[in-house]
Give the backbone structure.
Amino acid sequence: MKKSLIIGVMGGGTATVEDTVSAYELGRLIAGQGWVLLNGGRNSGIMEASAKGAYEHGGVTVGILPDKDHHRASEYIAIPVITGMGSARNSINILSSDVVVACPGGPGTLSETALALKYDKPLIFFNFKAGYKLAGPGKPGRVHYTETAEQVIELIEILTRKRRDQIKS
Amino acid sequence: MKKSLIIGVMGGGTATVEDTVSAYELGRLIAGQGWVLLNGGRNSGIMEASAKGAYEHGGVTVGILPDKDHHRASEYIAIPVITGMGSARNSINILSSDVVVACPGGPGTLSETALALKYDKPLIFFNFKAGYKLAGPGKPGRVHYTETAEQVIELIEILTRKRRDQIKS
Amino acid sequence: MKKSLIIGVMGGGTATVEDTVSAYELGRLIAGQGWVLLNGGRNSGIMEASAKGAYEHGGVTVGILPDKDHHRASEYIAIPVITGMGSARNSINILSSDVVVACPGGPGTLSETALALKYDKPLIFFNFKAGYKLAGPGKPGRVHYTETAEQVIELIEILTRKRRDQIKS
Amino acid sequence: MKKSLIIGVMGGGTATVEDTVSAYELGRLIAGQGWVLLNGGRNSGIMEASAKGAYEHGGVTVGILPDKDHHRASEYIAIPVITGMGSARNSINILSSDVVVACPGGPGTLSETALALKYDKPLIFFNFKAGYKLAGPGKPGRVHYTETAEQVIELIEILTRKRRDQIKS
């Protein structure tokens, strides 16, 4: 397997039907680009949906689990990374992602968007309205707002040209 | 040294003069109550100011440092805990605090307020206006807003009656 | 990409020529089995050699880096997980591995073999003589000694029958 | 509370009567010196015994807990630091200690002695025979062997002259 862009997809452990469908679609499109999907790894909500979308379309899925074993890992995660660190692992999610996509979620997802700002990662909000409030502290050009999975993919392509060249070389 | 309440004071590595004075005053009052002050441990901003206020008035100060050594530790931290984990240590700051006080800060402080909501800790905003936006997801009665150090202390007294009884017994 | 066994290959950041060759060969054979190779991710010693062996033979390589960025990542790591946690990440290396192979290394590698015993993971020493001393505390049947990469692969096949069935189902 | 030396006392969650008595005595003597005792924080084995010895003689006790709450914390720990990170917190234990004392323990304690060598901390084995095997990789003058709590204290005094001057200034 060759190196590729790593797209972090953050979002809640519970999700509405609409957000679940959107996360699945995002996972499918990320796989279609040949990018790696990285998320929190659990078998519920945005994590399960985005992993399923990618896994069922040939993508590589990496889950950074808060737990100390596999019991709550999504079956659509090809590579479960078991941290045993609870929400301290949120920092790893962000550091490991070339781009961070924030889907709707609760306080855990909010903490991840804040860390994306802290670590100066490109941050794309995907219909995560609670997160929009955090945009203020973001550097110009680092925070983006999208409403469809296609928009997310287009944005990632624009934002990562340099990084993709680095990876190829 | 007997056990006591642990008050987490979060806030930025840079701070205005006004916020610096407020953080020092808060540290002084926390020491006056005989409580432990816990913060991020660095020698700048809200961390240095709150530690100094407590240290110079006989308080116990604990700093959970992101670094792998003492080089950037505040001299007013009596007990430096060296994590070498960067911002992943933010999770430890919150888990270890009986009450979390959020002073003005940037994305790192925002991530800590989000984790306080995640872990269901009593959360007191102390003039941290950016953080106010996060209040929405908080459970009723868990998120509070204050404008003076005295108000923070009064609130902590009210919020921790049960916890203080646990500690004494 | 489908799920597969994850083999943790631990070992030093510096290595003799002989140990480097052995680690490369082990990586090659792990890739040949279709297993995932997980290591510490750096561009030196056993980490670089084992990753190169797997990467150049079509394997999937995951690196759990201690650093906060990619600067010291091996170019043969397809999936760099950036922890920013220093040696605290050793715990993640072990928790995430279905089997742990300990190649020659220093204190960091020793700490990983100790954690393998702690977490009750199958542990295969591969010419790591310093590590042999730790075998005492291991549960019967959990600690093994090998001298060739082929022996390591054979042992993994025997030790993981149940786990491989779990993964397939 | 003024700054002081931080002595890390590592050891098992279960302990023989003899080792328990020795750990209590060591805690008592550390408190007598005005030093801070830091350990893993749990309510059993060497952790409970060493904390009790220090706590009952006016010492300051800091526990770096692997758990995500206080349920298994020793009542003799004045300052519980809640990491929620499992054995990944072993790294914090060592980084935070000016000197590491290794009492008898299992694989967790072994991993801590290995990290002490990794981080180049002064390491004193106190009747921990399993740990003796690890001494080989230690730099000359960094690893020491003792049989009584008094010997441990004497050694710490010798090993920390420079560090104690730093702390005072």
User: Anything to note?
Assistant: Residues 17-32 of chain C form the longest helix (16 residues). Chain C touches chain B at residues 68, 83-88 (CB under 8 Å). Strands of chain C lie at 6-10, 36-39, 60-65, 79-82, 99-102, 123-126, 143-146. Chain C has one domain: 6-168.
